[in-house]
TrEMBL record:
Coiled coil: none annotated. PROSITE patterns: HIS_KIN, PAC. This is histidine kinase. Pfam families: HATPase_c, HisKA, PAS_4.
C-alpha cells in the first residue's frame, strides 16, 4: 500500500513536469510572436520616418529648384535622418538631364551621375525609386528621385541601405533568424545577417517573400519555411502607405533556445525530486521514532520558559484579543491578590487589584480593545501595592499570526514612581528658576530707574561746575576732578541704560515705536556722533550708501542704538591708522543689509560663538583694556529680532570684523531718489 502510494506520487511529479514543459513551450512561441510584432512595429516606424522625411525634403527641393540652405553642409541634417546607427539620407543632389550635378550636399556627393544607375532617372526627369545598387566601394544604396517643378532637372536623395543593415544587426533575435527590408517587387534592400544568396542576388527570394493586399497593414506568419526546411514564425508589416515591407522572421529553434535548456533542467530537477521523496519517506519512518523524545524536550522547554516568565520583576501577562487572561507571572498575580488559577480565563479589567476604580477599569478595557485592533498602546496608571500608591508604565503589544491577525496581547507594567517624582521635582526647580530670573529682571529694572535719577543730578552738577556758571572754582584741579566725575557718571549711566534695556528685552516689555524712515539719514547721524572718538583714535570713518536706498519701517531710536553700538565697537577695537566703513545695500530678496566693517584686531573663532550672549566679550582682558559690560551686542541682537531681522558677525583675528544687520523685505518701501522723492 505504502509502495503503491509512493509510486503514484512520483508518477504525479513526472506528469506535472511534462505539462509544465508543454505550457512553457507554448508561452515561448507566443512570446516570440509578440517579439516579432513589436520589433516589426519599431522597424516599420523607423523606415516610414526615413522615407517620409526624405520625401518632404525632396518636395521642398523640387519646388525651389535647389537644396535648402539649412541642409547645405557635410551631410543633410533633416529630422529623423539620423535615427539608428548612422545617417539614413546620405546625400542630396540637384542633377541636370545630362547627369551633371548642379548642387549637392552630403557624405559622398559626385560631380556627375553619368554611367551610374541614376543616369537614366536623371534623363527621364520622372519620379522613381532606384535601387538597390552597389557602389564601387561596396556599399549598398538606393535613391529617391523627384523631378524639379521647372523641368530643368531632378532632385535626388541617396539612402544608405547599409545603415538599415547595421540597425537590424543590433537586434537580438538569434543566430538563425533574419530581418528583411524589401520593396513591392521583392528586391531586398537590407537584411540583418550574412546571406550569400542575398549578397549575390537581391531578388533571389522575390517569389517567396510575403506581400500584403491593399488595406492590410501587417500579418503574423508561422509554419514550415521551404527555403530552410524548418519551422519559423514572423511578422511582415507594410511601411506606412509605401510599397515597402519590414519582415521579422524568427527560426523556431532560436525562439525555443531557452526552452531547450529549461527542458533538460526540468528533467534533472524532477529526477532529483523523485530521489528526495524516496529519501524523505525513509527519513519519515525514522522521525516517528524521535517524535516522543522531541515532545518531552518541548515540555521541558515550556517549563524553563515559564520559570523565566515568573522570575521577572516586571508585571507580565498574556491576554486574548477579547481581554481574557491566558497566562500571568507571579508579580501580576501578587498585584491582583489572587492565584493564577482564579485569573486565567477571566476578563483582565474585572479585578480591582489591577483597576481599583470603575474609571481605571474602563480605561484598561479601552486600551485592550485598541491593542486588539493592531495598535501598540502605552499609558501610565496608578495602583495601590502594600498600602502605597505606585505609578505604573503599562504597554500592550499585539502579536500577529502568519495571516496578519492579532492572536495574543502581551501586557507589561513597570514601576516608574521614582522617575515621575524626579520629573515633578525637576519641574518645580525649573519654575523656581524662572521665578528667580523674573525677579532678577524686575530688580534690575527697578534699580536702574532708581540709579538714573542721582546720576543725572551728578552729571548735571558736574557740567555746571565745568562751565563755572556761579563763579570760578579756584584751583585748576577742581576742573579736572569735575570732568572725571562727569565722565564717570556718564559711563555709569550708559551701563545702567544697557542693563535697563536688557531687562526690558528679557521681560518682553520693550515696545517698538515704528515709522517709515530713510536709513541713510540714520547712518549719517550715527557717523556724525562717532566722528569725534574716531578722530581722537586716528581712525578713518566712511559711509557707502546708494542714492536709491528704499525707505525702512523701523524704530528709529532702536536703529540708531544698534548702529552706534556697532560703530563704537568698530572704532574702539581699530588701531590708529585703521578704517571703519558703513555700507548699506538692498539684497536680491528685497532685504536691506547694513554692514559695519573695520580693519581692527578681529575676534577669535571660539569667541564668535558666545559674543552675542549677555555679559560676554571676546576675552577676559577686553573689559579691562576697553571697558564695557558685554551687553551691547546682545541688546543689538534682541532689537533686531524685534524687527524680524538678524545680526551676524564675521571676523578673523588680525584682519578686522564685519557686523551685518538685516531687515526683512516686508519692512522696505519704494526706493528713494537722490532728490528725496520716491523713485
Amino acid at each position: 500500500m505504502r509502495i503503491g502510494l509512493l509510486v503514484a506520487v512520483i508518477a504525479g511529479f513526472w506528469l506535472v513536469a511534462y505539462a509544465d514543459l508543454e505550457r512553457a513551450r507554448d508561452r515561448a512561441i507566443q512570446d516570440g510572436l509578440r517579439q516579432t510584432a513589436n520589433l516589426s512595429t519599431l522597424l516599420e516606424e523607423d523606415a516610414r520616418r526615413v522615407m517620409v522625411v526624405a520625401g518632404y525634403t525632396l518636395r521642398g527641393m523640387t519646388e525651389s529648384g535647389q537644396i535648402p540652405a539649412y541642409l547645405l553642409g557635410e551631410a543633410p541634417d533633416a529630422p529623423g535622418m539620423d535615427s539608428g546607427p548612422g545617417l539614413a539620407l546620405r546625400t542630396l543632389l540637384i542633377v541636370e538631364p545630362d547627369g551633371r550635378v548642379r548642387q549637392s550636399t552630403g557624405l559622398d556627393a559626385p560631380a556627375s551621375v553619368a554611367g551610374t544607375p541614376l543616369a537614366q532617372a536623371a534623363a527621364g526627369r520622372s519620379a522613381s525609386f532606384i535601387g538597390p545598387y552597389q557602389e564601387p566601394g561596396g556599399g549598398w544604396r538606393a535613391a529617391i528621385v523627384r523631378p524639379l517643378a521647372d523641368g530643368s532637372g531632378v532632385a535626388m536623395g541617396l539612402l544608405d541601405l547599409d545603415r538599415f543593415a547595421r540597425l537590424y544587426a543590433t537586434q537580438n533575435i538569434g543566430p538563425r533568424s533574419i530581418i528583411l527590408f524589401y520593396g513591392e517587387d521583392g528586391l531586398v534592400l537590407a537584411h540583418s545577417r550574412f546571406s550569400a544568396p542575398l549578397d549575390q542576388n537581391r531578388a533571389v527570394f522575390a517569389d517567396i517573400l510575403p506581400r500584403l493586399p491593399a488595406g492590410e497593414a501587417a500579418r503574423t506568419l508561422s509554419g514550415f519555411d521551404p527555403t530552410e526546411g524548418r519551422e519559423r514564425i514572423g511578422t511582415v508589416r507594410r511601411v506606412g502607405g509605401l510599397p515597402f515591407y519590414v519582415y521579422v522572421r524568427l527560426r523556431t529553434d532560436d525562439v525555443l533556445a531557452g526552452w531547450y535548456n529549461d527542458r533538460w533542467k526540468r528533467v534533472v530537477e524532477t529526477a532529483a525530486v523523485s530521489v528526495v521523496v524516496l529519501l524523505l519517506a525513509w527519513l519519515a519512518l525514522r522521525q516517528l521514532g524521535r517524535l516522543e523524545t522531541t515532545t518531552q524536550a518541548l515540555r521541558a522547554s515550556e517549563r524553563r520558559s515559564q520559570a523565566l516568565f515568573d522570575s521577572s520583576f516586571q508585571i507580565m501577562g498574556l491576554l486574548s484579543p477579547d481581554g481574557r487572561v491566558l497566562a500571568l507571572n507571579r508579580p501580576a498575580c501578587a498585584l491582583a491578590g489572587l492565584p493564577a488559577e482564579a485569573l486565567v480565563g477571566h476578563r483582565a479589567w474585572e479585578f480591582r487589584g489591577w483597576a481599583r476604580t470603575d474609571e481605571l477599569a474602563a480605561a484598561f478595557r479601552q486600551s485592550i480593545e485598541k491593542a486588539a485592533s493592531g495598535r501598540f498602546v502605552r499609558y501610565e496608571t496608578d495602583v495601590v501595592a502594600d498600602g502605597l500608591t505606585r505609578v505604573m508604565d503599562v504597554t500592550i503589544k499585539p502579536v500577529y499570526d502568519d495571516g496578519g491577525v492579532v492572536t495574543v496581547l502581551v501586557v507589561e507594567a513597570r514601576d516608574i514612581t521614582e522617575r515621575v517624582e524626579a520629573a515633578e521635582r525637576l519641574a518645580t526647580a525649573l519654575d523656581q528658576a524662572e521665578a528667580a530670573n523674573r525677579a532678577k529682571s524686575a530688580f534690575l529694572a527697578t534699580m536702574s530707574h532708581e540709579l538714573r535719577t542721582p546720576l543725572n543730578a551728578i552729571i548735571g552738577f558736574s557740567d555746571i561746575m565745568l562751565h563755572e556758571l556761579f563763579g570760578p572754582l579756584g584751583s585748576p584741579r577742581y576742573r579736572d576732578y569735575a570732568r572725571h566725575v562727569q565722565n564717570s557718571g556718564r559711563h555709569l549711566l550708559d551701563l545702567i541704560n544697557d542693563v535697563l534695556d536688557m531687562s526690558k528685552l528679557e521681560a518682553g516689555r520693550y515696545t517698538l515705536d515704528e515709522s517709515w524712515m530713510e536709513p541713510a539719514e540714520a547712518i549719517e547721524t550715527c557717523r556724525a556722533l562717532t566722528a569725534v572718538p574716531a578722530d581722537v583714535g586716528g581712525v578713518t570713518l566712511a559711509v557707502e550708501c546708494p542714492p536709491d536706498l528704499p525707505n525702512l519701517l523701523a524704530d528709529e531710536r532702536a536703529l540708531r542704538q544698534v548702529l552706534l553700538n556697532l560703530l563704537s565697537n568698530a572704532v574702539k577695537f581699530t588701531p590708529r591708522g585703521g578704517r571703519v566703513t558703513v555700507s548699506a545695500v538692498r539684497e536680491g530678496d528685497g532685504r536691506i543689509a547694513i554692514t559695519v566693517r573695520d580693519t581692527g584686531i578681529g575676534i577669535a573663532a571660539d569667541a564668535l560663538a558666545r559674543i552675542l550672549e549677555p555679559f560676554q566679550q571676546a576675552d577676559s582682558s577686553i573689559s579691562g583694556r576697553f571697558g564695557g559690560t558685554g551687553l551691547g551686542l546682545s541688546i543689538c541682537r534682541d532689537l533686531m529680532a524685534l524687527h524680524g531681522g538678524s545680526l551676524s558677525i564675521d571676523s578673523e583675528p588680525g584682519h578686522g570684523t564685519a557686523a551685518t544687520i538685516r531687515f526683512p523685505a516686508d519692512r522696505t518701501g519704494r526706493p528713494v531718489a537722490a532728490d528725496g522723492l520716491p523713485a
